[in-house]
Structures are given as C-alpha cells and as structure tokens.
Amino acid sequence: MSWAELRPLLTTSSLRQATTIAFICLLFSLISIVLSNQLLEVVMRSHVRDMILNDVRSQQLQGAMVSAERLSWALRYRQQLDVRKERQATVVDRDGKLLFGSRGLLPEPTLPASDRLRWYHITLTNEQGEAAEVLGLTITLGDGGQYYSAFDLRPMLERTRIIPLATGAGLLLLLLSILITALPFGLHNLYRINRIRDALARYANGDYTAMAPAVQHGDEFDQLGIEINHGLRRINKLMDEVKHITSHIAHELRTPLTRLQSRLLNASEHLQGPAREELLCAVQDSERIQHLFRAVMRIAEVETGRMACHFEVIDVRELLEDVAEYYQPLADERGCRFELEVQKDCQLFGDRALLFQALANLIDNALKYAPPGLAITLAARGRNGQGMLQVRDRGPGISAAHSERAMERFQRLEPKGDVHGHGLGLTLVRAIAEVHGGDLRLGDNQPGLAASLNVRKQVLAGR
Predict the structure, then answer these.
(1) pLDDT tens-digit profile of 104-134?
(2) For a tag on the chain, would you pick the N or C end, based on fewer CB atoms within 10 A?
(3) Cα angle: 330, vertex 333, 336; to 5 degrees
(4) Average of pLDDT values for 249-258?
(5) Total Cβ atoms within 10 A of residue 186
(6) Topology (CATH level 3) of domain 16-159
(7) Of 330, 368, 332, which Cα lies nearest the Cα of 449?
(8) pLDDT, average across residues 254-263
C-alpha cells in the first residue's frame, strides 16, 4: 500500500479511536509496570528483612550468638549446605579480627558497642568487582564480637523485574494486535465514505441519478446515506419544479411577446411621423425583452446541467476562425480586425456549440467597449484536451477589484448610454467554463481586458 493510499486511512475516525484507546492503555500499562516494579522492590526488601530476622532467631535458638567463635563454626557448617549465593554473613571478634566472611562486605563505620542492633542498606563492590546492593543487620554478640547478616538484593531484584517486563511485553503485543485488527475496519469505513463522496461528486458534476449507497436498518453510515439520498431526491424534485415553472413561463410569455411585436409592427405600417417612431421603439424594446428572456433561460440550462452537452475533441483554430468570420461584418463597421494566436495543433475537449457561444459573448463585449480601429486578439493554447481560450482587447478593461462583480447577473460596470446589454454575457461565459470543469478569469491586457476561459478535461471525464 502506497503512502497516498495509506494517508487517508490514518485519518479515519475508527483508526484514531483505536489508536487513542491503545495509547491510553499503553500509558496505564507503563504506569502499572513502574508501580508494580516499585511494589516488588518493597515486598522483596520486606521479605529479606524477614529472612535475616529468621536467621538471627535460628542462631539464637542454637546458642550460637554467645560468642564469635561458636557463631563462626556454625556458619561454616551451614555454608556447606547453603545454596543461596545472595546470603552474606561476616563475623568479627571484639578486637575487630575477621573470623568468618569477607571484610569487603562490612559496612563502614562498624556498629558502636552501645547499639545492640542496626539495619543498614548500602551499595558496595564485592570481591569480583561487581556492584552489590546489600541489605543487612548488625548484631553485637555476647562476647563483644559482631555478626553481620545480609543479602545482596541486586540479583533478586533483577529476577523479579522480569515479571513486569514480561507483562509489559505482553500488553504491547496486545495493543499492536488491537491496532492491526482496527486496520480492516478503518479500510472498510474509508471505502464506504469514499463511495458516498463519489456519489456526491457525480451529482455535483451533473449526474443527477447518482445516489449514496445505503441499506435500510443498517449502521450509522447507512443512515447517513439514507438522509443524503433523501436530500438529493428533494433537490431533484425542486429542480424539476423550477424547470417546469420556467418552461411554463417561457411558453406563456413567448407567444404573447411575439404577438405583441407583430401587432406593433402592423400598427406602425398604418402610421406616419412620431407615432410610427414610437411604435418602432416599442418593437425594439420587445425584442430586447425576448433576448433577455432567452439569455436567462440559457444560463439556467447551463448552470443546472439540464441541457444536452456533446463533448468532443475540437480543432481550436477552426473554431476561432468560425467565430471571427461570424463577427467580421460587425468588426468591419467599427474598423477593427481580428488577430489569431493559436498554438500549433491546438485541440480542446468540450462542447463546440457552448464554446462558440462563450467566445461570441466575449467578442461582442470587446466590440462594444473597445475603441474603434484597434485589433482584437483571439488566442488559444491547449494540450491533451485541456487548455485556454482568450479574447484580448484594447478597451478600458476591468479592474481586479471588480472582476468578480462583473461576472454576476445583471451587473454592468459604468454602463454607457449607447451600449445596449443586460449584464448577462460574462455570467453565461462563466457558466460555460464551469460546465467544462474550468473557470473564467478577467485579467489586465495593459491596456484593455484579457478574458481567459479555461478548459480542464479531467473534470469533464465524469460528465
């Protein structure tokens, strides 16, 4: 599994929950291991104290505590039978002469004669040069000698430390097994989330039949899918109602407007002078109303994806030449010429009719606002089915602060009295760009406007 595939899994809630639980358990396990190790040390020291006291009582019962000589003899006899290497015993007489054991294990300073018993816990080096942690008891004998009974705690503690270490290793393996077990569940949940996301992405790209996977009476993901599908069906119903209403309005208004225009034309034929001019102006107003209505309907069809799109590989040079030829008469009236800058073998993947419409709107704006006699540049570049179409003029342009506002519906920046329009041209171009998975950008041509329509093939593949 690659990092790109593993990274989404690491961010799933199920894996994070399992990791959090495992971390908390591991933290408590470490605390328990430390506390148990401390508890074992306390228990071990208490046990050693009991063994030392039992040894002293045993020697007292045998009468060996009367003199240093007798105790030394008893310890030599016991040494032959004692298998515990941790036991340390040393006997000195009243003059400090060593009678049994090793002087290197004697605590310093020696026990004052006034003290009968004293516990000591020291760290020293034994005869082999190894560090020893000695816990012992010094006792003054009947003849003034001293008996040192002690145990080396280090070997005993090292053996007991195996218990918490083994327990910790077992808990670590258990936690790792929990994480490994959580991975399949995380992968399954991630797969289900991705299916829901894919369904929503297809719906956003125009596939209004896409639905999230869901099973009735399933788990929380199924319940989420059911609610999402309910919302999508509701959206489809509302869109169908809007389409029905707009279609009904179009049907109801188009015919009366056409009849009104026809009647105005008929009436103007029977009149002369100012009355005829007024009726002809009314005819022009009705034509603008019809044009506005068709533009609004066209934008709605493009934005909602309810229109039939025919995507194909387009020869961009041929497309630009067709648009330029279509607008050449209007350009000749203003003394403008078209300049084409097309990349060699430039091709785009899109709907030719929609792209023609978008370029026509951009050229229409350039001819309206650019000064007469200046060239209008049609540029294009593309590769692997994606690229950019651009229309550049030498007009006043649009500032960066107003570029977004200019693409909104019915927005006209500093409209001129002799320039007709409704502020819908750039709105339609942006909608066409979004259908092609791209966007519309208004830049500075220094001077003038550089309108760039971007086309991205990879987004269109799912339409």
Answers:
(1) 666 665 545 445 678 888 877 766 667 778 8
(2) N
(3) 80
(4) 71
(5) 22
(6) Beta-Lactamase (3.30.450)
(7) 368
(8) 77
